[in-house]
Amino acid sequence: MGDVRYVVSGCRSADLFPVKGRNAALMLAIPNILKNNSSLKNANKLSKRSKELYFDSGGRQIYEITNNKSKRYKRFTSERNKPVYFGDTLNIHVSHLEQAVKMFRPKYLLGLDFPIRSSSDPQEQNRRFHKTLNINYSWAKSTIAIRDKHFPYLKVILPLQTQNIQNLLQYWNQIKHLKPDGVALPMRCFKNDNRLIEVLLEIHKLKIKEVHLLGSSRIGTIIISSFLARNNYFQNITLDSGTWRQAADRGKVIIPYDLREVHIGDKNCIITERTSKLPKEWTLKLMKVIDAAGGSNEHKKLREFNFAAIQTTIKDIQKNADTPLKIKTYLSERSTRTEDIEKICHLLNRIPT
Q: Tell me: the pLDDT tens digits for 253-281?
């Protein structure tokens, strides 16, 4: 039986860490760690709060710059002898990965990669894949070399910047000799549950046991991951997202077993409607968060509640993921997303167990 774990990402300081003790895995982005002395100290404090430490090589930052979504940085380079940031330029080189790993000794490292934009057009998917193929292979090989030469304990997860099975197989045939410890999927390209299932089943056929799903805590992603892990398709599936903090920053609460966001000041009874099936213990916790609205602890309470909502939802679905029917029955007693749950479980019924 495999395992599904939620990894905290988007945590900007130790003061914002959403759980007490060392009870959560944490992902830090290497560009943010190596930005300056202050960011190094902050990363050190955060690493001491984590149960397991993951390093992301900076794919998100590269994606934002190359798609004109970065407010501060306009250019991207990859040069060994320059700092990570200078002027309006982000500079990420494999040597920076090695530097960060040497300082913090994380358990997992997501390989340096050049992200692609999502597209529903097969021809455009293929074009974007081939446009970044050479650089992604080169960076994959260099990232694996860090593990093989210097850090044998390190688990390297290689991102698959692919959107269809044909490109997936082509890229895997090119990198499999590198023997990565797992692969990662950019979830901006797999918001469709059916497409996600198809790709995960293909990854299973390749005998890959560890998968990381980048940037997602959607209910569909969690249900699919839990079912596949519970039925031994994978040894480990991890998910990361900054949703717990981003929602809190906007004054929104994430509803357990539902995972939709609702503003705590909503006047249209949406909270009452979406929490009508929640267990009493969660209703009481939510009331405490609402009572803190407008006070100095509002966002702290929201961050802690939102993280707990996502983490508990993952753990509880996983415990009840033996069959699609069991998932549907369990969630239908706790969530008002009846139609969404039925659609996802219908897709799961097609998977052999």
A: 999 999 999 998 775 678 888 999 999 99
Same domain for 209 and 263, yes or no, is: no
With respect to residue 100, please indicate whether it lies within any of the assigned structural domains. Answer: yes
Q: The tokens of 111 are what?
A: 């390989």
Question: How many residues appear in the chain?
Answer: 353
Q: Are residues 322 and 256 in the same domain?
A: yes
- Check whether residue 26 and residue 131 sit in a common domain: yes
Counting the structural domains of the chain, the total is 2
Of 215, 241, 267, which residue is a domain's last?
241
- Residue recorded with tokens 């753990």: 315
For residues 249 and 233, give the distance between their C-alpha atoms in angstroms, rounded to a whole number: 36
Spatial distance between the Cα atoms of 343 and 192, rounded to a whole number of angstroms: 12
62-121 tens-digit pLDDT? 999 988 888 888 899 999 989 999 999 999 999 999 999 999 999 999 999 999 999 999
In angstroms, rounded to a whole number, what is the distance separating the alpha carbons of residues 235 and 233?
Answer: 7
Contact 2, 235 (CB under 8 A): yes
H/E stretch holding 33: helix 30-33
SS3 (DSSP) at 210: strand
Residues 239/185, Cβ–Cβ less than 8 Å: no
Task: Tell me: do 146 and 40 sit in the same domain.
Answer: yes
Helical (H) or strand (E) element with 247 = helix 243-249
Range of the domain at 48: 3-241
Identify the DSSP state of 15.
Answer: G
Domain stops at, among 218, 241, 264: 241
The residue type found at 177 is H
